[in-house]
Amino acid sequence: MATTTAPQQTASASPGPMKRIILIALIAIIAAGAAGAGVWFFMSKRAPAAASAAEALPPPAPLFFPLESMTVNLQSDDGQQHFLRIGLTLKLSDAKTQQELTDHMPELRSRILLALSNHHPDDLAPLDGKRALATELKSLIEEPTDKGAPPVHVDDVLFTEFVVQ
Question: Cα torsion for 11, 15, 17, 22, to the nearest 10°?
Answer without folding.
Answer: 140
